């Protein structure tokens, strides 16, 4: 029982952290209903992180993703999409492993990567994809 309580508390803390970080206006939260309009109306490329709350590598990468968003602010729009809550979009892009990041220009995929990356690796992925 104690283990279940600890896991539940840890999950709540991690979700609260994810939500608080998303409120810094650096990262857009995409949903089934708004993702396409966000991609099509952005004047910059959009890097979307597909994640889930139960995914440990996703949670590990979150602060690095936010740091990269601050570093690349003005050049690329950063967004995230929870695959458990937004199954239609995840299915459309055939997301099978987490975390997955896709760099879009409008609704066109420029590049895709799977797995947890460091801040430097995220920045390099974006820069190399835009060459």
Summarize the structure.
By secondary structure, this protein is an alpha/beta fold.
Round the Cα radius of gyration to an integer and report it.
Answer: 15 Å
Describe the strand arrangement of the main beta sheet, using strand numbers.
Answer: 1-3-2-4-5
Q: What best-fitting shape do the alpha-carbon axes yield?
A: globular
Quantity of strands, as a count: 5
Q: Please write the string of helix (H) and strand (E) elements.
A: HEHEHEHEEH
Pairing-aware structural class of the strands and helices?
alpha/beta
What proportion strand? Answer: 15-25%
Helix-residue proportion: 40-55%
Count, helices:
5
Largest sheet: 5 strands, mixed
Provide the low-confidence segments as ranges: 5-23
Instruction: Give the N-to-C terminal Cα separation.
Output: 53 Å
Q: How would you state the average pLDDT, rounded? A: 87
Task: Lay out the secondary structure.
Blueprint: H1 2-22, E1 27-29, H2 35-41, E2 46-51, H3 56-71, E3 77-82, H4 87-92, E4 100-105, E5 108-114, H5 119-129
Parallel strand pairs: 1-3, 2-3
Antiparallel strand pairs: 2-4, 4-5
Helix pairs in contact: 1-3, 3-5
What does this structure look like?
- By secondary structure, the chain is an alpha/beta fold.
- The chain is 47% helix and 21% strand.
- It contains five helices and five strands.
- It has helices at 2-22, 35-41, 56-71, 87-92, 119-129; strands at residues 27-29, 46-51, 77-82, 100-105, 108-114.
- Strands 1-3-2-4-5 form a five-stranded mixed beta sheet.
- Helix 3 packs across helix 5 (119-129).
- The longest helix is centred in the first third of the chain and has 21 residues, at 2-22.
- It is globular, with a radius of gyration of 15 Å.
- Mean pLDDT is 87; it is low at 5-23.
